[in-house]
Design a protein that fits this description.
mainly alpha, 91 residues
């Protein structure tokens, strides 16, 4: 990354378009840290880890889907994971 300040706008646009884009959150956090904006950087890096978890849960949910299950999710899936998957899966 060259100039961290010039990277902010495109990175913010990327996370606005796809809030689960973990790499964009991570890069945004890195740029903010280089600019001395530690609190914002920490938030973006946390969001990066959260996004990675949401994507993992989504993939697990899709692999457990059953056409006969309520809501399309398999019976073995815990309720908390169902809620997270519904919020993050776009299938």
């Amino acid at each position: 990354m060259g100039d961290p300040a010039s990277a902010l706008t495109p990175l913010r646009k990327a996370v606005d378009i796809d809030p689960n884009y973990a790499e964009a959150h991570y890069q945004l956090g890195t740029a903010l840290a280089k600019l001395g904006r530690a609190a914002e950087a920490q938030k973006e890096r946390f969001q990066s880890r959260f996004s990675q978890t949401a994507v993992r849960l989504c993939k697990e949910a899709v692999s457990r889907r059953s056409p006969t299950a309520v809501g399309g999710f398999g019976p073995g899936m815990p309720a908390g994971e169902k809620a997270a998957a519904r919020g993050s899966c776009r299938s």
